[in-house]
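Throughout our pipeline, every protein is held as a single compact record rather than as scattered files. The record that follows is passed on verbatim for readers who wish to inspect the format:
___
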Amino acid sequence: MTLREVRAFLVVFVLLYAVDLICAQTKESDCWVNQDSDSNLHPCAFPFYFKGRRYSSCTNEDDPDGKSWCSTKTAPNGAHIGGRGFWGFCDPRLGTWEPNNEFGECGFEHATAAFIVNGKDAESNEFPFIAALGGFNAVGKKSFFCGATLINGWYVLTAAHCFSSRFKVNFTEVLLGEVDFSREDETSHAVQKFSPAQVIVHPKWNIEELLKGFDIALVRLNKKAILSIDDQSMSSLVPVCLPWGSREPSPPPVKVGTNLTVIGWGITEKSPLEQRTNIEQFGVAEPLLQKVEVGVISESSCEAEYGRINVDDTICALTPGDSGGPLLERGSTADSWHQVGIVSFGPRKCGKSPLPGVYSKVSQFIPWIRSQLQP
């Protein structure tokens, strides 16, 4: 390698390191992008206005490929200055990245070793976005109290009630890539461990008013997760697909009768003794990740059981799932997994009660989620 090549390599390395270092910060003004007009690093001009809409984070508005971008220069009134290259694409390494299904950035699975789940074969990486929230309970035992889903390299999505006093757990850990808590032979890079840097609960959530909805929360990780798109040899993690493109105030509801999928490590049909043993040993009632199909029912059927609920922000299904875990949909095994709901409340034991499960409707909260993401 010549001296010139060495210098060129060092320049590229420093620039890439600078993007990682600067854009990992949480302040809006600290995010930098390669500006289209000169390919040099410039800070995002947050907040900026584009077509009358205010943006405090990256957006994919008007981009033909659905890629996220930000303005780098605005007029005195905060409006983006268009037509002169004062913008740049937001890096997928940032917390504001919105994975795009059309480009294979979310929801797909990595098929490797097989496990048995509810009598059916399930792949170990069938749900590469599932997360487990854990910590230590009052007696110092490890407990994984809620599920969650990875939505980009920095954030997981879960339920607000997971952070109520009900769980009596000191939240200290987020696990990604875990499938079977009883296995000790998983590859070292399969499971990634994080601590929570920030917990963001929806401001309208109230544990005393479950039926009003807003049971949604975000957790920012203390460091970026290594994703499959970063390095397939080191990770099989893939974010779940969210309806990022939804701009309608009232998206069409999931159709009644649709079969959706719920996953988690919660209470199953096993005996109470076996479940207590598992909780004592592994921190979960069922060490192997479970999946089950649930049928969507009408809001009126749900209200007949629980009384008046916030039907605009919720989905009702025949079987409840594990707290904070996802309600998932996909058209076929070749399609990507899309998260349509978050487990909110229902009867404690699946299949032991005629009461349905209630899920927070993700599409209704996309504007709130987007507003909370920081680079």
